[in-house]
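worker-3 :: picked Alpha/beta hydrolase
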Amino acid sequence: MTHHRQVRGWPLALSALLAGCSATTGIGVKDVPYPTVRSSWAQAGITDARQPFSAVFCRHLQATPATAMQDCARWWWPIEAGATGVADRPLSDPLPATRDLVIIPGIFGECVAPWVTPFSHDHAALAALGYRVSVADVEGRASAARNADHLHTHLARLPEDANAVIIAYSKGATDVMLAVSQPQAAAWRHKVSALIAVAGAVQGSPLADDGHTLYRDLARFDLPTCDRSDAGGVRSLTHAEAMRVADAFAASRPPFPTYSVVAVAERGNVNSLLAGTHAWLSLIDARNDGQVLLEDAVIPGSTVLGVFRADHWSIALPFEDSPAPLMRPFRRNNHFPRGPLVRAMLEFTAPVAASRVTTKEE
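worker-3 :: tokens ->
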């Protein structure tokens, strides 16, 4: 019989789990299941909406009292000269009150859920605007397959008029993409108006390719806020697993548009717990958030809304707003205008949502 024990200093163990392993050996030949190729966004069928989205984001940044005096360029990676993308669109009114917002946490999200969930500092304000905000009850250490089952249950319960926007953070993108590609999704796909991946581990991460063995070593420990589950969470983020999910998602031809929001951190502006993984990933590509490479964070065929100056945590998880002593290590370099970002994402997708409402009514 294998004996499990609860980690006495569990915040440190959780830090190790979240940060991954910086002493990695690299990507092996067998880590990626089939040949891949680098290409431009346009060649890959990806739409570049950074320019028009930046105007929406900056307007919300300046309309928020706490950030009104901030320079928008502080948060936005410059858009290269000659970049092509979609034309500016008219700004919309606030979204219909019947619209649901479903937020899907990432890996280990359940472990810190008593203190923070993605964009949790802004849930009340969004509810006041008329959104029905729900956080999907996925397991922090479970495989994408197990969490897909949870998502089928959660999303099938949405009302028929949900017109839902799904914001999937980190591994949450992998979980929901797998769910969408499965037959059970027929019960709820028509209720979704848009899927937005934020710092999504869409194609996996090199850290998971090498770090899933570390997780297996740590899986024997219990954490008081998240069960071991099937211990398949990190394996689901290997390129071998995640790329198969991304292919299945694309082949399922989802009936709603998809969007990607990417984080890229600078060495001096990354949480210290992510510094080791950020440095190691930078040996592959400096454009990473400490957990995921830029090229792995974009949903195939999606519209890219922005590439932000943030690490994997600061773009979505408001550790800085949690007074809990246990969260102190996670508060370093955590400042980011998450409220303006989430409101800009919802506003930018509103015209698409409105058109889907009209189509359904007709």
